[in-house]
């Protein structure tokens, strides 16, 4: 019997098969990561713990009612003005003596907050409030803190707070990370995010 | 002289495509590695609100997802239009959340448990009542790190 050579396999459709797979993975790929507002919930409290006493003037009350209206310090307000109002409250620095704030640039109104360390923003919302509104309000309040932290970081370290945090998380950062961490903590301590949320009312 | 004119056709030489599969395979492998399959099928409407003061949520393996919103149109006949919670692939009650958190913790290595974050993917039309209930359950389960997942955009877009 004559020796026959094996016929060559036709590889012409290999590219087609590869393309098919490629398109499948192209469609199912999601490269982008989620992003959002990070918050820390308060731990559960014992029933019999006395709540600390906070002076009325150190509380900035933000109420969102069931019609998604914004009530700031008992006055109706548009969302676009909220950040400015929150900044003015936190930056006020009306305290004297041991409660004075040497890095505040606010008006020093004695009826507003003493010191950013004492200032508390209280957010009350209704059970019927829409989540979108709630997030918008949260966003503005976090934005107010970020604005002030940026300002202080810029003054002390010559770069914005967001940049410092980005550097800290970046693998390509060449500077001293421990020092950067300390600086971040320092700015955070100067403007602590004291955002208290009450249980919603009906 | 006909001998020299033999090859003088007007057609272009064919391009050699034998390296095409290699290129395609290279791309294929890239996308295969970069792909993360969507693990859960959404049963609720999930139009996220907008925000611009956002932080990125890295380390996807350390994130637990809780979805909430109105049931999608094909589930509305059975489940109504009231906003519901979805855990993994199923509708759930508020009371199921603690169990869900504990079950998720079981699947992670012990030293990573403190870094677990709960991502709340809540539809922008949901009432805060439900969100507060979810947060209460998370506090009871001591899953205190949360992230309200949003789309990037101005906060004022939430009112459009």
Automatic annotation (TrEMBL), chain A:
Specify whether Zinc is a keyword of the entry. no
Which GO annotations describe the biological process of this protein? protein transport
* Alphabetical list of InterPro entries matching this protein: ExbD
Keyword annotations for this protein?
A: Cell membrane, Membrane, Protein transport, Transmembrane, Transmembrane helix, Transport
* Spans traversing the lipid bilayer: 12-31
Question: Per the database entry, which stretches of residues form a coiled coil?
Answer: none
From the Swiss-Prot or TrEMBL record, what is one GO molecular function term? transmembrane transporter activity
Where's it found, cell-wise? Cell membrane
Pfam families hit by this protein: ExbD
State whether keyword Protein transport applies: yes
Any one cellular-component term (Gene Ontology): plasma membrane
Q: How does it sit in the membrane?
A: Single-pass membrane protein; Single-pass type II membrane protein
Q: Which PANTHER family match?
A: BIOPOLYMER TRANSPORT PROTEIN EXBD-RELATED, EXBD MEMBRANE COMPONENT OF PMF-DRIVEN MACROMOLECULE IMPORT SYSTEM
Indicate the family of this protein.
Belongs to the ExbD/TolR family.
Q: What is this protein called?
A: Biopolymer transporter ExbD
Tell me which species this is from: Salinimicrobium profundisediminis
What are the top taxonomic ranks of the organism?
Answer: Bacteria, Pseudomonadati, Bacteroidota, Flavobacteriia, Flavobacteriales
Automatic annotation (TrEMBL), chain B:
Q: Where are the transmembrane segments?
A: 12-34
What's a single GO MF annotation on this record? transmembrane transporter activity
Membrane topology value: Single-pass membrane protein; Single-pass type II membrane protein
Any Pfam family hit: ExbD
- Name any GO cellular component annotation: plasma membrane
> Sorted alphabetically, which InterPro entries does this protein's record hold?
ExbD (IPR003400)
Name the principal localization, coarsely classed: membrane
Q: Which UniProt keywords apply?
A: Cell membrane, Membrane, Protein transport, Transmembrane, Transmembrane helix, Transport
Which family does the record assign?
A: Belongs to the ExbD/TolR family.
Q: What is this protein called?
A: Biopolymer transporter ExbD
Originating species: Salinimicrobium profundisediminis
């Amino acid at each position: 019997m004559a020796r026959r050579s094996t016929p060559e396999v036709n590889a012409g459709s290999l590219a087609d098969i590869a393309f098919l797979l490629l398109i499948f993975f192209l469609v199912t790929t999601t490269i982008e990561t989620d992003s959002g507002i990070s918050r820390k919930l308060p731990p559960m409290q014992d029933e019999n713990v006395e709540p600390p006493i906070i002076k009325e003037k150190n509380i900035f009350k933000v109420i969102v009612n069931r019609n998604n209206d914004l009530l700031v310090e008992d006055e109706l307000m548009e969302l676009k003005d909220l950040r400015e109002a929150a900044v003015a409250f936190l930056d006020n620095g009306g305290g004297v003596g041991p409660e004075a704030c040497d890095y505040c640039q606010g008006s020093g109104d004695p009826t507003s907050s003493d010191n950013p360390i004492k200032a508390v923003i209280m957010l009350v919302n209704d059970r019927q409030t829409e989540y979108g509104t709630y997030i918008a309000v949260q966003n503005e309040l976090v934005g107010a803190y970020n604005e002030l932290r940026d300002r202080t970081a810029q003054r002390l370290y010559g770069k914005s707070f967001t940049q410092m945090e980005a550097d800290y998380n970046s693998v390509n950062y060449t500077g001293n990370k421990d020092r950067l961490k300390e600086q971040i903590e320092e700015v955070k301590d100067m403007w602590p995010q004291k955002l208290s949320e009450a249980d919603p009312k009906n | 002289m006909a001998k020299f004119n033999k090859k003088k056709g007007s057609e272009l030489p064919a391009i050699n495509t034998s390296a095409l599969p290699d290129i395609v395979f290279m791309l294929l492998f890239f996308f295969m590695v970069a792909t993360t399959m969507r693990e859960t099928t959404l049963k609720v409407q999930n139009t996220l609100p907008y925000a611009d003061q956002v932080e990125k949520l890295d380390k996807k393996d350390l994130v637990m997802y809780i979805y909430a919103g109105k049931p999608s149109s094909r589930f509305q006949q059975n489940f109504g239009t009231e906003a519901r919670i979805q855990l993994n692939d199923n509708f759930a009650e508020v009371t199921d959340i603690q169990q869900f958190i504990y079950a998720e913790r079981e699947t992670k290595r012990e030293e990573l448990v403190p870094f677990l974050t709960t991502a709340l993917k809540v539809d922008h039309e949901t009432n805060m009542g439900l969100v507060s209930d979810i947060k209460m359950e998370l506090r009871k389960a001591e899953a205190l790190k949360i992230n309200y997942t949003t789309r990037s955009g101005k906060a004022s877009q939430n009112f459009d």
